[in-house]
Design brief:
Number of domains: 2
Helix content: 40-55%
CATH architecture of the largest domain: 3-Layer(aba) Sandwich
Strand content: 15-25%
Structural class: alpha/beta
Low-confidence stretches: 1-7
CATH topology of the largest domain: Aldehyde Dehydrogenase, Chain A, domain 1
Number of strands: 17
CATH class of the largest domain: Alpha Beta
Mean pLDDT: 95
Largest sheet: 7 strands, parallel
């Protein structure tokens, strides 16, 4: 770098972010200094109650829909409540401060340490639940956090932070004193320059949403936790409980108008049960459009190679009106179905739709159903998740062994199950890592353990050095020396 470049004054966006970061670093040091588990737990609970208090939850949900135009208020209230409650359950007994593990046999003591300042880029689809999740996870581990909301989500994010500060003010000591600097957000207007500076200067970046932001995070030079694109396919085999499967898909596909990356985008049905299953989908509120109507819907949904933003996460009546399709018994319709005519870039219906529309594919048998689901995932959504409705658990295991996926969701409503549910064992989260298949650094649901450093105290123990015979005897017997 030239001397002139070094002396070039910093722009205003950079100065704004640097000032926020400096306050966050000072607050985090005070928060961590002399801390015990109780301090971290109280801060996390304060942030949790800030969103879960019923009146505030309802206000935040309504404001989120009003300002972003995405989803619906009823389901956002449910999402804010269940995701936060589940997260608080998950972390309730986790030790994240001080000594967390002793291994006398190996002479190792493990100590939990904060990573420092977390930068979290959050999407407009979940402008309350996702930042709340990020804040709680960060505080549980002794970190400060700076949120980067989407432009449409900035106002409701600021309102959420105001409620978090109000809860902090109820607490004595350190949390009340540093709380406003411990949890911050980039001020509006949010710009790419501010987000980029945040990514480059915090201690770890967590990115949910735009794959462009994920790629920028990974190239920022800062340790990054990014999550992959969703494009969920679910398989219906000949052994499935067809009525239960249809009801689960309907509940998942319509929840919050399909803002979730875990909502079913494609349904692959084996031929033996296709007609019966389509009848069950219709009873559950699905409407399979005929050729002309399906083409009309696709033309309205995909414009210029991109999703029509006016149809993303909209109510079903708006989708019908905007696309001009004719729907039988429209008053009872909950979501629309179109036949899949192919997979790949030339067939946009095979990609993620983020609206109350799903694509139906047919398969001769389970083998072909797996191939169709794999091809869809290869096009978009590799690593994220696949669903299966079946009575044969070995088929779920087979998908896990053979498909490029980090999650196989069995006999469940996909969008509820993938990010953690009270009736499965996944961590509650709104950010799903997709492993190497999705170009991500994690294959788990993002959770508080990703925001810890672990220091190891290593002591000498009795030597444990094997002989060559110990290691190679079996190999030598088979292959020789």
């Amino acid at each position: 770098m030239s001397l002139a470049a070094k002396l070039e004054p910093l722009d205003s966006d950079t100065l704004v972010v640097d000032a926020i970061l400096e306050r966050a670093r000072m607050a985090q040091r005070r928060f961590e200094h002399g801390a015990d588990q109780s301090r971290y737990d109280k801060a996390a609970l304060a942030a949790g109650w800030a969103i879960m208090e019923p009146a505030r939850n309802a206000e935040l949900a309504a404001m989120a829909v009003e300002t972003t135009g995405l989803g619906n208020v009823r389901d956002k209230i449910t999402k804010n409540h269940r995701k936060t409650l589940g997260l608080l359950r998950d972390i309730r007994c986790s030790v994240t401060c001080g000594v967390i593990r002793e291994d006398p046999a190996k002479g190792i003591t493990e100590i939990a340490r904060a990573v420092g300042v977390v930068g979290a880029v959050v999407p407009s689809t979940n402008p309350v639940a996702t930042p709340a999740n990020n804040v709680i996870n960060a505080l549980k581990c002794g970190n400060a956090i700076i949120l980067s909301p989407s432009p449409k989500g900035a106002a409701v994010c600021e309102r959420l932070l105001g409620y978090i500060y109000a809860e902090f003010d109820k607490l004595d000591g350190c949390i009340a004193e540093v709380g406003r600097d411990l949890v911050q957000m980039l001020p509006a207007p949010v710009s790419k320059a501010k987000v980029q500076r945040l990514m480059e200067t915090v201690d770890v970046v967590v990115v949910t949403g735009s794959q462009d932001n994920v790629r920028r995070a990974y190239s920022s030079g800062t340790p990054a936790i990014g999550v992959g694109a969703g494009n969920v396919t679910t398989i219906i085999d000949e052994t499935a409980d067809l009525g239960a499967a249809a009801r689960r898909i309907a509940a998942s596909k319509t929840f919050d108008n399909a803002t979730s990356c875990s909502s079913e985008n494609a349904i692959v049905v084996v031929d033996a049960v296709r007609e019966a299953f389509l009848r069950e989908l219709e009873a559950a509120g699905g409407r399979l459009l005929d050729g002309a109507n399906a083409e009309r819907l696709k033309a309205a949904l995909f414009q210029g190679g991109k999703l029509n933003r006016h149809m993303i996460a909209r109510d079903i009546d708006q989708v019908i009106a905007l696309s001009g399709v004719k729907v039988e018994n429209a008053a009872m319709a909950k979501f629309l179905l179109i036949e899949g005519s192919g997979i790949g870039a030339d067939f946009p219906e095979s990609g993620e739709k983020l609206c109350v529309v799903a694509t139906v594919y047919s398969a001769r048998d389970f083998d072909e159903a797996e191939k169709v689901a794999t091809d869809i995932m290869a096009h978009l959504g590799a690593g994220h998740s696949v669903g299966i409705h079946t009575s044969l658990d070995e088929r779920a295991v087979r998908l896990g062994l053979e498909m490029p996926t980090c999650r196989v969701i069995v006999n469940q409503a996909h969008c509820f199950a993938t990010g953690g549910s009270f009736d499965n064992g996944m961590p509650f989260s709104l950010s799903m890592g997709c492993g190497s298949w999705g170009g991500n650094s994690i294959d788990d649901n993002f959770n508080h353990k990703h925001l810890l450093n672990i220091t190891k105290i290593v002591r000498p123990i009795e030597p444990n050095e094997p002989t060559l015979e110990d290691i190679f005897s079996g190999y030598w017997r088979e292959a020789g020396k």
